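Appendix B, record 7
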Amino acid sequence: MNLRLQSPRRVLLLTLSLLSMACGETRVEGLPSTDEVLSNRPSADEHSPSDPGQPGDAPQATNAPGQGPLGGQAEVEADNDDDEPVVDLLRATSTRLATSSAYRDRPSQVALLADGNVETAWNSRTGDLVGGWIEFEVPDSAHIAHLAIIVGYTKQTASRDLFAGNHRISRIRVSRQEDDGEYVEVDDYDLDPNSRELQEILLEEPGGRFRIEVLSVVEGERPDWRELCVSELRVMGTVPNAQPGTRLPQTSVGVLSAQPASETAAPCDDSDAAHRHRVAQLRPQVEHYLLAVGATLMDRPDVDGIRDERRRFLRLLAPWKECVSPEVLDAIRLRESVNMARGSVQDIMILRAWTSMIDEDLQAAIRLGDETSARIEGSRCRWERWVIGTLLQYLMMMHMADTFVAEGEGENPVLLPEVFDDALDGWYANSRGFATRLARAQIPDGVYHPADTWRRIQQRLPVVTSACGW
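Structure tokens (predicted):
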């Protein structure tokens, strides 16, 4: 293994130059500036954030789903007397969720009920207050222990307290749908309209379809804000084969989705031509995404640039969604619900959050492609080459982060084997020959240079060798 000592700054220059070469750059003697790098991005589409109920107050979440401050209510509670843990069923199994209305008729509002983030909220249509409802359906095999609900919108900004300003729910009725389609009352429940925490509603019911109807509300400080607001709803219970934190409900407005929460893949274009087109679109966008992060490390912070590239990357996964099982689809939907942490790249925790976010984004995309390519004859070689190329790019970006930290602390960075000097260009130019070189390489660990990334590459080398017939 040939390791050569270079200055931290030189390592950053070299790594970013390699990343830019992967994006089609031909200049290798210098480093493109941030403006040059980011000017190669596609023109930005206007992003419409989830509307929190009042114009201008778009959510700015920094927590991954399920990690926000939720009043001590965990997604997975201590085991009950049985073997199955009590979990949030809406995020652990196949479920459906609907509301009586949505603010500005936006269906995306419904998903905010179960996104695990209290800084977002479902908002009803203006005027839909008393009589408004939320319906949910969980598998018949489930058992509901209790509900947990936040009765208002807990987000606060420098200028507004949206909990105090909006209406809050003070009394609800829970009903269960019987076999004849009629709803039968389970009970009425009083809620504390001044509490910003999750409030528990004991239920002890078998699975099925339920309706939560609003019976009374308390007016907020802004009477012109006339929408129901619920920051979070949890349906706590047990179900066989629960997968806590990995699922999301199918959502709709006005009525529960007519399509059952199927566990089978939806019809899609499974042709080799469609798969080739999807992979061809993904490759440059991943490169732009990682290059935006690298440029931020080298020059001035450009959080908006990274966020824009991430949105484009996630949008490119949309054509794949109809081709995968609900579990894999939910993995992508969960990534879409995660917003970038705000802060300075100089903050070690922010840098760690960014690299972790990118890793999880890429792993969700790889999981999606693994499932689809397994069904398409002749596509596996193409896909495996893309996966290893993408993991190499991520590894190089992580090396930049590691070098960035080492430089800031006055230490020498972790050094890479010589094979990585042309890793990105070399892999796509001669994958077969480069695979042999990669199989012999070893990489020392660094602070932001996780060994599991390198292990994933090594684990997939035999797969790509077999798929491509090398």
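Remarks on this record: The longest strand covers residues 199-218. Residues 164 and 220 are 6 Å apart (CA to CA).
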